[in-house]
Design a protein that fits this description.
- By secondary structure, the chain is α/β, with parallel strands linked by helices.
- Helices cover about 35% and strands about 15% of the residues.
- It has twelve helices and 15 strands.
- Strands 4-10-9-8-7-5-6 form a seven-stranded mixed β-sheet, sandwiched between helices. A four-stranded antiparallel β-sheet has the order 11-12-15-14. The chain has a two-stranded antiparallel ribbon with strand order 1-3.
- Helix 3 runs parallel beside helix 9.
- The protein is globular and about 70 Å long.
- It binds pyridoxal-5'-phosphate.
Length: about 400
């Protein structure tokens, strides 16, 4: 294990909990609660509306975007934060379609997250009746790239299996047929090394409450390649994406550069929380973090293989083909997970019957992985998953 990790003292984590769900909701970083309270009491309470200027509320989406940019390998000035990821997917796909008039296909894969597919389909339904969403097997994406494709929309790391696409190769293949590429980095940012600039990615989006630990409801981000951004005609052309919001002009003029992807009023308290949470990345090398994640993931896979034959690995065996979570299939996955959570080992489940474990070396070590497998083995030994108290599924899994 790398000497750099874990850094559990940077988080407020309950004692005794093994938290294997940081891929879905990162834990509370130290100091975020104080920062939120200062924003509420000192800025909102003390400054009132003056805080839009005096506390930098209005500039926060861009300033926090600049702080996030290095984590995805994007240059300063190319990322803005706001809204939710589902909204940012709509904006990115709409921008891509407008950049490629005459092309009618948005290509994605069946492993993509439901919201990305739902919002894209609903967007295309509103267009001209010509556009269609084509979803193919993740392994067959490259075979379906042709000159009909306006936008290739992919999530790099599959939310269920952890399968990771080859971003450089697929971006290059999409560009070879003249398509725009939109990468969703929801399960990548803060988990795996990213180089959106080096890959020439056109647009990228992601959320900040998973590996970036921004907190529940934290705003999303969008990146546009700097040489492309002035051509983007934003869908959801809100007043804060206007070139001069407070001129209150009767018609929309897009703001400079990435600013045009803003929509309306930013969530100021969440923005401050995210700003503070991102301080962690100033001295965190994502490549080293990913290497530590591979080490812990290999340990989990090996120990489960040895001690819990009831579980079947569904994540890729090759660490290079994986993000930073590991999933296993098992009958009664939901009941097993409820029994695990009762043992203070927190992961989650996804259909069809997958147990999912986020591997986050910022606050996990080899002892935590062993403790998680101990709990799993204990469940199978005692047949705890059949306990009637686990019969009812939870609303949020
Ligand atoms: C988590 C996730 C989302 C969630 O979108 P929200 O608008 O933040 O609820 C969307 N897409 C992907 C790929 C995700 O992993």
């Amino acid at each position: 294990m790398s000497a750099l990790f874990p850094r559990r003292d940077r988080f407020e984590l309950p004692d005794g909990v093994v938290y294997l769900d940081g891929n879905s909701l990162g834990p509370l970083p130290l100091g975020v609660a104080e920062r939120a309270m200062a924003t509420i009491r000192d800025e909102w309470g003390g400054e009132l509306i003056r805080a839009w200027n005096s506390a930098g509320w209005m500039d926060a989406p861009r300033r926090v975007g600049d702080k996030l940019a290095p984590i995805i390998g994007a240059p300063a000035g190319s990322v803005v934060v706001g809204d939710t990821l589902s909204i940012k997917v709509v904006q990115a796909v709409a921008a891509g379609c407008r950049l490629r008039p005459g092309r009618t296909t948005v290509l994605s894969d069946t492993g993509n997250f439901p919201s990305d597919l739902y919002v894209t389909r609903s967007l295309l339904d509103q267009l001209d009746g010509e556009h269609r969403l084509l979803t193919v097997d993740p392994e067959q994406v490259a075979d379906h790239l042709d000159d009909e494709v306006a936008v290739l929309l992919l999530t790099e790391v599959d939310y269920r299996t952890g399968r990771r696409h080859d971003m450089a190769a697929l971006t290059e293949a999409a560009h070879a047929v003249g398509a725009i590429v939109v990468w969703d980095l929801a399960h990548s940012a803060g988990a795996v090394p990213l180089d959106v600039a080096g890959c020439g990615v056109d647009l990228a989006v992601g959320c900040t409450y998973k590996y970036l630990n921004g907190g529940p409801g934290a705003p999303a981000f969008i990146h546009v390649r700097p040489d492309l951004v002035d051509e983007v005609e934003p869908l959801l052309a809100g007043w804060l994406g206007h070139a001069a919001p407070f001129a209150m002009e009767s018609t929309y003029r897009p703001g400079a550069g990435i600013e045009r992807l803003r929509v309306g009023t930013p969530p100021v308290v969440q923005m401050a929380m995210l700003d503070h949470a991102l301080d962690l990345w100033v001295d965190t090398d994502v490549a080293a973090l990913h290497a530590a994640s591979i080490e812990l993931s290999e340990q989990l896979i090996a120990e489960v293989g040895r001690r819990c034959p009831q579980l079947t690995l569904v994540s890729p065996k090759d660490p290079d083909g994986r993000g930073s979570h590991v999933s296993f299939a098992a009958p009664m996955a939901e009941q097993i997970m409820q029994a695990l959570i009762d043992r203070d080992v927190i992961g989650d489940v996804r259909p069809p019957s997958l147990l999912r474990f986020g591997i986050t070396p910022l606050y996990l070590d080899a002892g935590d992985i062993t403790a998680a497998v101990d709990a799993l083995a204990d469940i199978f030994e005692t047949d705890a998953q059949h306990d009637p108290k686990y019969a009812a599924a939870r609303a949020v899994t």
